[in-house]
User: Fold this.
Amino acid sequence: MLVTCKCHGKKIEQSTAYCVRINGRNTYYCSESDYIGICRNRELKKGIADCINEIYGYEATKTSAFNMILSGFLKDASLEDVLDYLRNNKSYLKKTMSKSFGNEYGKAKYFVAVLRNNLGRDAPQEEIILQSGFEMHPTNYVEKPRRPTIDEIERQFIGEDGEI
Ligand SMILES: [Zn+2]
Assistant:
């Protein structure tokens, strides 16, 4: 009998599938690591949701902000990175998000833009430099793209929403 892996949506043979019984119903996965991965992701998403709600000061995850993040707005950053960043920058983000926004969508877009701007891009480059023993000679130094400032992000959104 074929069953469907809850992680990949793939058809797999029931006899070799990893089975978990939840509320009296069997759910199937290709392997135990599929199942652990899903649990871990759920945990991370829950952590991210809690942080966002705290930063917003209300149940923001019922609005578009959270959904946008989950639907891959931050596809270049891992959930771990997002959660770390939110946890470590709560007071900064609270302050940043406390101004008034025209609507929830504009606010969510702004929030995601701030996250995108602060996540990812810089650290990996420095890591590569360290790992390869690369020295910073003027001839082979590649200038990193400058991060836009909060003001610049705001200006970018004034054009689009006209409200912020
Ligand atoms: Zn699978």
